[in-house]
Specification:
Blueprint (H helix, E strand, L loop, with lengths): L1 H6 L15 H8 L43 H8 L6 H8 L8 H9 L5 H10 L2 H9 L5 H14 L5 H10 L2 H7 L5 H8 L6 H9 L5 H8 L8 H8 L6 H8 L4 H9 L5 H11 L4
Helix pairs in contact: 3-5, 5-6, 6-8, 7-8, 8-10, 9-11, 11-13, 12-14
Length: 285
């Protein structure tokens, strides 16, 4: 017993000079171990091989700070958010990083990420500046309901932003915002909105049928190269009281008599113009 304690461990193994070529496996057999007889059907694993980070996890390299690290920069955060499979937990940690969230680009990227928790996305959207909201609503990867939230926030802000900002929005914004800017009192705003490539025919019709449509706006639509040739826009123009007689006659000639009768019945055109159209285009009616 004293001899074993003096060794401070297990007694040394006796060296075997037989079958040196067999290597460690043979020595294990001599010691009664099972090293050389593993089930070939079982998968073999090397415990010394470290697996890389799984999908959706942030890099753990010492050179790359984690999402909650105060040393994380806006550029590194943007690089992390480019991963479409980034875990929502990582997105939430980034959103709590005060230094990184000062970046407008990071806020937009986080709000637009497909795995961003909805409560975080909505909070970030409400905190976006006017033109960041516009850009967010135009991103193709953003969910439709979040785009609508951004558009509604923009429309609600129209009354409080400057003329120059409204003109810029009229030129570049989404269909909803451009349609709302058709109601602007400043001619430069709605004139710019009429040229917005995202503006829809439905928005034009809605603006023409509202009671407060100005004669200047109606006349501009009557002579607009793109909108004045649309059938639905022409029907809406014939319901508006500010359409000049010459344009009303031109539009009415391209509408079947049965439809024209229904349009004139609900039209706000002066009675003299409606009577003239009926006499010229619907004889005997």
């Amino acid at each position: 017993m004293r001899e074993r304690c003096a060794w401070r461990g297990e007694p040394p193994q006796r060296k075997s000079h037989r079958n040196k070529a067999a290597g460690p496996a043979f020595e294990g057999i001599v010691r009664g171990e099972n090293q050389g007889f593993m089930n070939p059907a079982e998968p073999q694993f090397d415990d010394e091989v470290e697996s890389g980070p799984g999908p959706g996890t942030a890099p753990t390299s010492p050179d790359c700070p984690s999402a909650a690290d105060p040393a994380l920069t806006a550029d590194l955060a943007l690089a992390m958010v480019k991963d479409r499979d980034l875990a929502s937990e990582v997105i939430e940690r980034i959103s709590r990083n005060t230094a990184v969230m000062k970046s407008r680009k990071v806020r937009v990227a986080l709000a637009a990420h497909p795995r961003a928790p909805r409560r975080i996305a909505l909070r970030l959207i409400r905190e976006l500046y006017t033109f960041d909201l516009m850009l967010f609503a135009l991103l193709p990867a953003v969910a439709a309901d979040l785009k609508r939230v951004a558009d509604e926030l923009l429309v609600a802000r129209l009354a409080s932003i400057t003329l120059g900002e409204r003109i810029s929005l009229a030129r570049r914004s989404s269909a909803m915002v451009a349609g709302a800017l058709l109601f602007d009192k400043e001619a430069r705003v709605w004139q710019t909105a009429l040229e917005n490539p995202r503006l829809t025919e439905a928005a034009i019709v809605k603006a023409l049928l509202r009671p407060g449509a100005t004669p200047a706006f109606v006349t501009a639509v009557c002579h607009h190269a793109k909108w004045s040739v649309r059938p639905e826009v022409r029907r809406a123009l014939l319901r508006n009281e500010s359409v000049p007689l010459a344009r009303a006659l031109e539009f009415a000639r391209r509408i079947p008599p049965a439809q024209l009768r229904d349009i004139l019945h609900a039209s706000r055109l002066p009675e003299k113009i409606k009577s003239y159209l009926r006499k010229e285009l619907m004889p005997g009616k």
